[in-house]
Amino acid sequence: MKKVTNVAVIGGGASGLCAAVELVSNATDKNGIQVTVLEKMTRVGKKLLVTGNGRCNLTNMNAAVSGYRGDTEFAETALKRYTPEKNIEFFNSLGLYTRTEEDGRVYPLSNQASSVLDALRFECERLGVKLVCDYRAVHLKEVSTAFTRKIVVNNRDRFDYVIVAAGGKAAKIHGTDGDSYDLLKMLGHTVTSIAPALVSLNCENFTKSLKGIRSVCGVELVIDGKSEYKNSGEVQFTDYGLSGIPIMQLSRFVSMSPSNDIQIILDLTPDFSEEKLLSYLISRREKDTGLCENMLSGIINKQICITIMKECGIAVNGRVNGLSDEQIKSLCTILKRWKINVKNSRSFDFAQVTAGGLNCSEFNPETMESRLCSGVYCCGEALDVDGDCGGYNLQWAWSSGRTAGKSLAERINNAQNK
Ligand SMILES: Cc1cc2nc3c(=O)[nH]c(=O)nc-3n(C[C@H](O)[C@H](O)[C@H](O)COP(=O)(O)OP(=O)(O)OC[C@H]3O[C@@H](n4cnc5c(N)ncnc54)[C@H](O)[C@@H]3O)c2cc1C
User: Fold this and answer.
1) Euclidean distance between CA atoms 189 and 162, whole angstroms
2) Do 183 and 117 sit in the same domain of this protein?
3) How far is the CA of 167 from the centre of ligand 1 (A)?
4) Which helix (H) or strand (E) segment is 6 a member of?
5) Which phi-psi region, left, alpha or beta, contains residue 416 (left: φ > 0; alpha: ψ -120 to 50)?
């Protein structure tokens, strides 16, 4: 009887589905291989459906290795092999076309994340990949005899090879609770310190009155008095603190820091230099006989104006033309450098990504195979690689998943040709 090579992919998310497709597509004898995706949730790809606010920002044309953190040297091989262009070609070959938007962000033409998942699901179906849902892998071990060597999942299901693609610890609601780490620790792997990334921040004594307001700001992260990160973009004020893309981008540095002295400094008027702002404020004082609460409505949100007036000790029902030079100066300073004390980042449950993960030095970057247990591969967010907001994390999921799938296909092809 013909020998069939059995492969399990643990985790039917972005990298797992992609690895399964790449593996079977590159297998010379498609009848000589059976790939089974084992997925904990009731359906594969549940997280993919919520990515990019339901639109799936599937990659970024600017996704160079400089947009990643963790073991970037390890990540470089897969990222260079499967560039954003190559991953778009991959999806084109599945019938999915894309549009590139602001800052290089790439979305499906349909604007629906479900199209990305469907493209992968239908290709799995066409290639004969088995999708087994409601299957949580909790145990992984290697069993060898004189003649065979198997990787056994849950002490029951035996496979020739296993790809662990069970994600990180962020967004438990979508199936990821750190199982990748526990499974690979059973084979001797280690995990670097992990923390929530791409997540909002809890701030101290934060005024709830700003909840729901969005404002384009310059943003600086200061830890122990040292400037650690600067960017800009639309900041969202919430009832617990700050959110929005520029805040999420720097959140990994907050959650990774042991310090209690962390501040966000907002430039509420990034379009004005300090001199221009000062002369604007002075000209308002000259012309404006109205109430202070309306003084800045020409340049910032009124509720933010009221909040910072209070921080400067200015009575909002006072008159603009009654402001002293000192009050004008402190208003200018706070508009350009509003210091907000950060308590911490929100938890993994609210995070989009995990910073840290499985120690990449224990895997081969050319193949994604474990250096500790032959025949076991790992890809995606489970590894110690995290990217910027804007399609970088899915780009890593596709590139690492394809690397694992392709290299395992080549290995199986070589073994079958012997
Ligand atoms: C709300 C949200 C929005 C996001 N938006 C974007 C975006 O627009 N662009 C972008 O680039 N990134 C985005 N991300 C990040 C991106 O989704 C992830 O980095 C990416 O999905 C990781 O791929 P993965 O295959 O490693 O893991 P996942 O896609 O998380 O897949 C892991 C799979 O493994 C399954 N699993 C877990 N444990 C087990 C187990 N023990 N047994 C069996 N199965 C298991 C899970 O149920 C899951 O289906 C977003 C994340 C979130 C939470």
Assistant:
1) 15
2) yes
3) 6
4) strand 5-10
5) alpha
Q: Is residue 248 lining ligand 1, measured as CB closer than 6 Å?
A: no
Same domain, 297 and 358: no
- Which amino acid is located at 292 in the chain? C
Cβ density class 153-167: b for 16+ within 10 Å, e for less: beeebebbbbbbbbb
Question: What domain range is 223 assigned to?
Answer: 200-346
**Residue at a domain's end among 317, 346, 375:** 346
Mean pLDDT over 287-310 rounds to 91
Q: Say if ligand 1 is within 6 A of residue 393 CB.
A: yes
Per-residue pLDDT reduced to its tens digit, 219-251: 999 999 999 999 999 999 999 999 999 999 999
Question: In this structure, which residue's CA is closest to atom 22 in ligand 1?
Answer: 381
State in Å: Cα 189 to ligand 1 middle.
21
Task: Please tell me if the CB atom of residue 176 comes closer than 6 angstroms to any atom of ligand 1.
Answer: yes
Ligand 1 binding pocket includes 105 (Cβ within 6 Å):
no
Query: Are residue 131 and residue 10 in the same domain, yes or no?
Result: yes
Find the 206 Cα to ligand 1 centroid distance in Å. Answer: 31
Structure tokens at 393: 């994390």
Give the Å distance between the CA of 165 and the centre of ligand 1. 9
Residue type, 242: L
Kindly list the distances between the CA atom of residue 230 and the CA atoms of 20, 244, 337, in Å, as whole numbers in the listed order.
39, 14, 13
- Could you tell me if 295 and 387 lie in one domain? no
Q: Residues 333, 259: one domain?
A: yes
Q: Are residues 292 and 399 in the same domain?
A: no
Is the whole-model pTM more than 0.85?
yes
